[in-house]
């Protein structure tokens, strides 16, 4: 049903992603992963740059489509009810796309920075004298320290854009049930969707109005203004705080790490364990952010135009349950395997460097 209604817009955008990005990154990914010792250093760097460019281009097209579904623009409706592109420029560069694109690229860069720093810290726990790992740790920490505050600023701008175009999502993020001035910033709470209230709430009076309206007495719309078209509050509320909480911890750790590593100082074991623990923290934050994005737009699949319920397919519950289970199990195995392989490679590399010194007569 989704493709029948919006396929004239979604289809070309997905095709552009495949034609301009997927083939490019897929082709050079093998060269990047397995060509380090088979081709010259310049060619290897060129392949790596092409993979990075391809993935960025892929993100461009995918986020253009996703952003259009969040804040549709530049469309027209045909006689049979299909949505068609009246202005491709407005379709692609819809109101939320610039914010979403920059926010996602910065999140990916932060995730990569902590992956680099975390795996380097893991190696240093095994081989403290590995100078290459020490340099990589400092590079990752410096990159994260520069990107984290920039991400906070961009995230704030993205939030203001969301408030303008998807106020119900922001109300769910803040667990704000009623429209009010001097709306509090709810740090933690247990949202009760049946009673339409927050239990055990820890709040900063006027905080939400100050952040979202840039004035303590600014009026912020509550969920009651959008009933019954309101998103699920609890999962959006908690996912947003997981994303922000991990992001702030990454900011603090990166800045502390830069101070601790200044002047070529050797990192302490506590710092190494901290960076190691955050090796894959960026992925958790990104996943939480996407839960906010996708759950927060419900009950709409294309905001204001197509409801999720209207676009539901005709598969039975057993078929949906088995296919979803298969996807979850498959990707969980791939993810765990990926993490295990990376950590083992980091440790075995350190062991391999130490092995020749431990073999007499070699």
Essential attributes:
362 residues, mainly alpha, two-stranded antiparallel sheet, 11 helices, 67% helix, 9% strand, globular
SSE map:
Layout lengths: L1 H33 L6 H30 L4 E3 L5 E3 L2 H5 L4 H30 L4 H35 L1 H8 L5 E2 L3 E8 L4 E8 L2 H7 L5 E2 L12 H28 L8 H9 L3 H15 L4 E3 L3 E2 L9 H42 L4
Antiparallel strand pairs: 1-2, 3-6, 4-5, 7-8
Overview of the structural elements:
With 362 residues, the protein is mainly α. Helices cover 67% and strands 9% of the residues. The protein is built from 11 helices and 8 strands. The strands form 4 sheets. Strands 1-2 form a two-stranded antiparallel ribbon. A two-stranded antiparallel sheet has the order 3-6. α5 packs across α6. The chain is globular and about 65 Å long. The model is unreliable at 357-362 (pLDDT under 50).
